[in-house]
Amino acid sequence: MNSEITVKLPRCKGCGICVAFCPKKVLGLSELGKVVIENPDDCIACGQCEMRCPDYAIFVDKKVAK
């Protein structure tokens, strides 16, 4: 995994913008309409989800290789 994704569920309104912009289909929406991390190992840490979230509910922490 190239990154660690953190979701602040109370902030998420389930708009799906982060899901739509994820180029690797890492994110999805749960039955409750909240974002879920479905394929964390596929994340390339591009930050599109974090940049596009209107509610500041998702954060991408890029991991640096040692």
TrEMBL record:
<protein>
    <submittedName>
        <fullName>4Fe-4S dicluster domain-containing protein</fullName>
    </submittedName>
</protein>
<dbReference type="GO" id="GO:0046872">
    <property type="term" value="F:metal ion binding"/>
</dbReference>
<dbReference type="InterPro" id="IPR017896">
    <property type="entry name" value="4Fe4S_Fe-S-bd"/>
</dbReference>
<dbReference type="InterPro" id="IPR017900">
    <property type="entry name" value="4Fe4S_Fe_S_CS"/>
</dbReference>
<feature type="domain" description="4Fe-4S ferredoxin-type">
    <location>
        <begin position="3"/>
        <end position="32"/>
    </location>
</feature>
<keyword id="KW-0479">Metal-binding</keyword>
<dbReference type="GO" id="GO:0051536">
    <property type="term" value="F:iron-sulfur cluster binding"/>
</dbReference>
<keyword id="KW-0408">Iron</keyword>
<feature type="domain" description="4Fe-4S ferredoxin-type">
    <location>
        <begin position="33"/>
        <end position="63"/>
    </location>
</feature>
<dbReference type="Pfam" id="PF12838">
    <property type="entry name" value="Fer4_7"/>
</dbReference>
<keyword id="KW-0411">Iron-sulfur</keyword>
